[in-house]
Amino acid sequence: MTKTPSTTPASQRQLVLTFIGLVAGPLLALVCAGMGLYLVLTGKTIAGVVFILVLTQLFIGLGLWAYNARKKFALSQNVE
Hints:
Oligomer: single chain
Strand content: under 5%
Order of helices and strands: HH
Helix content: over 70%
Shape: rod-shaped
């Protein structure tokens, strides 16, 4: 008896990674950069710099990680 692999969890994972890598990560980074710029312009320099240097870079890194993980996952699914 042979088992056929279920494609639902694999496609679900690829869909989630695509959403995080191409939509959520860049959008959250853009929002954090805008909020940091607003805080710097209103005089809250330390909070603004934290938003720009820490949170924005964190969301950019999250998006890049998800994008690369999606590519690796897609390649591993095509090879097998």
